[in-house]
Structures are given as structure tokens and as C-alpha cells.
């Protein structure tokens, strides 16, 4: 029974929306994630993007196992307007799962740049 419940919980996480906020990055946002990275998003399908990890910011310890390419599914995320072949700062709790924020790199404010430079 415990195994069934564990599998059920994992399925719920797998199908849950992954809708990062696309607005200003705050110190609280950075503290709420385990990974902050610079990624380039390339569209695979509508609202599905391949992410090329360019750099990990030192605001958090980088993951032990780095994979340069992953995908993120933003289906059901009406506010997530991601442009093809564009760089973003992505903050997630577990690599590219449970992402809390995603901000265009070329739209970072000086305040956000200082937060990432810490």
C-alpha cells in the first residue's frame, strides 16, 4: 500500500503544472530554489522547450551532476511567454522541475544582476 501511495504522489508531481513566474527576481525567489542557471530556450512544441544550460550561478551550490540539455513543459501556463532561441535565468527547486522563476536575461534589472552576482 505504501508503494502505491508513493507512486501516486510521484505521478501527481509529474503531471503538475510547472509555471514559473516571469516577473522580477527577488532575494526571496533565489532563497526558495536549489538551482539558478542561465539557459537558452528552444521551442520543441507549443509550450515545450529544450533548455541548454549555459551557466550555473553561484548563489546556490551547483548540482553535482550537470546535464547541458533538458526540457521544460509549460502547457497550461498562460503567463509563460517564452521566446525561441532566447536566454533566460531559471530558478528551480529540483533542476528543471518545480521552477519558481524564469526571467529573460536581457531584461534583468541592475538589482537582479546584483542578486545573481552574490
Features:
3 helices; AceES-2; 118 residues; signal; globular; alpha+beta; OB fold (Dihydrolipoamide Acetyltransferase, E2P)
Low-pLDDT segments: 4-15
Number of strands: 5
Give the SSE order as H and E letters.
Answer: HHEEEEEH
Number of domains: 1
Structure classification: alpha+beta
InterPro entries: AceES-2 (IPR049084)
Pfam family, one: AceES-2
Signal peptide: 1-16
Keywords: Signal
Written overview of the protein:
The chain has 118 residues and is of the alpha+beta class. It has helices at 2-15, 27-31, 110-117, and strands at 35-45, 48-56, 69-73, 86-94, 97-104. The longest helix has 14 residues, at 2-15. The protein starts with a helix and ends with a helix.
Summarize the structure.
By secondary structure, this protein is α+β, with helices and mostly antiparallel strands. The protein has helices at residues 2-15, 27-31, 110-117, and strands at residues 35-45, 48-56, 69-73, 86-94, 97-104. It has one domain: OB fold (Dihydrolipoamide Acetyltransferase, E2P) (Beta Barrel), CATH 2.40.50.
Task: Produce the secondary structure layout.
Layout lengths: L1 H14 L11 H5 L3 E11 L2 E9 L12 E5 L12 E9 L2 E8 L5 H8 L1
Antiparallel strand pairs: 1-2, 1-4, 2-3, 4-5
InterPro entries: AceES-2
Keywords: Signal
Amino acid at each position: 500500500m505504501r508503494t502505491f501511495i508513493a507512486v501516486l504522489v510521484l505521478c501527481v508531481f509529474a503531471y503538475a503544472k510547472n509555471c514559473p513566474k516571469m516577473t522580477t527576481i527577488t532575494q526571496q525567489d533565489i532563497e526558495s530554489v536549489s538551482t539558478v542557471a542561465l539557459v537558452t530556450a528552444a521551442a520543441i512544441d507549443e509550450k515545450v522547450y529544450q533548455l541548454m544550460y549555459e551557466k550555473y550561478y553561484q548563489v546556490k551550490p551547483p548540482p553535482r551532476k550537470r546535464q547541458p540539455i533538458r526540457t521544460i513543459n509549460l502547457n497550461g501556463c498562460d503567463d509563460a511567454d517564452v521566446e525561441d532561441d532566447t536566454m533566460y535565468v531559471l530558478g528551480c527547486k529540483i533542476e528543471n522541475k518545480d521552477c519558481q522563476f524564469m526571467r529573460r536575461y536581457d531584461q534583468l534589472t541592475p538589482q537582479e544582476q546584483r542578486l545573481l552576482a552574490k
